[in-house]
Amino acid sequence: QVHLAESGGGLVQAGGSLKLSCEVSANIFSVSNINWYRQAPGNAREFVARIGTGGSTRYADFVKGRFTISRDNAKNSVYLLMNNLALDDTAAYYCQAEYFLGGPHKHWGQGTQVTVSS
Fold it and tell me: Of 31, 12, 10, nearest to 21 (Cα)?
């Protein structure tokens, strides 16, 4: 069974920081690329950051230099450190596990809310 659980969201003032966590089922973590997406009310879900199984990373242009994605293989977890948060970073943040075992698979967590206030 596959399970992803996000945590670490909350209310933060503009310019502040938050660190999101995504714990992934041990049975798929080592073979999964992990993505963070976000969705603001009324908007489509959008890509934020990605970390591959070997640690390679990719970011959306709007978070470059502010957000850092990392993974801890011993804890089956991926983190998203978000610095210098802005009002338009307010959204529900979701992690996604993407892997290929007998075919392509994608699994989502339930999301964690990030609210940035002025």
Answer: 10
57, 71 contact by CB (below 8 A): no
Answer positive or negative: Cα dihedral of 48, 10, 75, 82.
positive
11/96 Cα distance (integer angstroms): 23
- CA 23, CA 2: separation in Å to the nearest integer? 11
> In this predicted model, what pLDDT tens digit does every residue of 5-52 receive, in sequence order?
999 999 999 999 999 999 999 999 999 999 999 999 999 999 999 999
- Which residues contact residue 55 at a Cβ distance below 8 angstroms, ignoring those fewer than 6 apart? 71
Percent of the chain with pLDDT over 90: 97
Contact between 59 and 48 (Cβ < 8 Å) = yes
CA distance 43 to 90: 11
- The greatest distance separating any two alpha carbons of the chain, rounded to the nearest whole angstrom, comes to 48
